[in-house]
Here is the input.
Amino acid sequence: MKTDVDRILAENGFGSMLLYSGSYTNVNMFYMSGFLAIDPFLYLKRVDEQPILVINQMEFDRAKKESAVKDVRATHDYDFMKFLKAASDPRVGMMKFVASVAQKELGTEKPIYVPPDFSVMFADTFRKEGLKIKPLFDVLDKARETKEPEEVKAITSVQRVVEKAASKAIEEISKADVGTDGTLYTRSGGKKEKLTVGRVRGIFDHTFVDNGCIAEEETMIPCGSKSAIGHYAGKKTDVMKANQPIVMDIFPKSIGKRFVSDMTRTVVKGRASKTIKGMFETVAEVRDASIDALKAGVPGKEMQELCYRMFEKAGYDTIKGGKRIDKGFTHSLGHGVGLQVHEGPGLGEFNKLPLQEHNVVTIEPGLYDPQVGGVRIEDIVEVTGNGCRDLTRMKIALEI
Here is the structure.
């Protein structure tokens, strides 16, 4: 949680931190500032002190109203134009300006902690100006792992949109006509057309936008044997067929609050093969057992080991110990979700730290066979002290 940032900084011996970027693409900047802007701005903070936001004149009034930071200042408060006019290139002037603000507000005696992806050119400029900088590891990402009630509410709201879109997509698939070769057909404007991944993806995209969300990456809808390919999105021209698995991995973002949800459902229009049915039943059992076992205090690796045991007992290969396999359970059980679709904490073999209350994570066991396709079931849950709360309401059904 954001309220943990000062504690985490102090525990790591970090006296101050600095961020410089826009916040549309930098989730940590948005997390700390609560303000959306395309152009870069400055966030400065000393441990146990209120942060400062320094932003261009155009965005200043909006930042004063919208930002979570109370102390918002304009670049002109720091004689911004002087640095640009004095430099051989405005970009050099901007770097010297940022260093000057850091020097004034955070000082030169102790290191200033900056993100690991901080520009090398900015770092060089800081050092030339007498500033010490070090990488800001395991602070903001760690704080983001536990969610405030309002953040859980925002994720849940996106999840409801996910379920609305998935229901529409499944309805489109279920009502499709089946051709003699198994091809699925739909009708558009009275004309019979092949049902493609592109058409179904369009249903998702329109539903997202109509409900204040957006798919920043393509919704994954692989079909048939291609559904066994890890994170294959499916080409828009791929044609759907009856009696074959269709794996829908859905992870839009709220346009305003920026939070994400993540859900996967596997369906078959018609009759699934015996192999796919067996895979589905096993995955569903592992999903149920994982949700029953999940609670605060349990390390992520123990959740992964539970999956390994269950899948191996059922006769499927796993990647336990780094084993290379051609089919079976090929990934971790889950991951954190928040401002990013993949964030901490992880539920994998090397995640040794115990889960905490108010982590929001996915439970997504899956099995994959290149000959017949894949099956994955994914819910999103909030970890509690004595279990977890499933934020997913959508039913699980294979054949439609």
The radius of gyration is 24 Å. The longest helix spans residues 149-174. The chain has a mean pLDDT of 97.
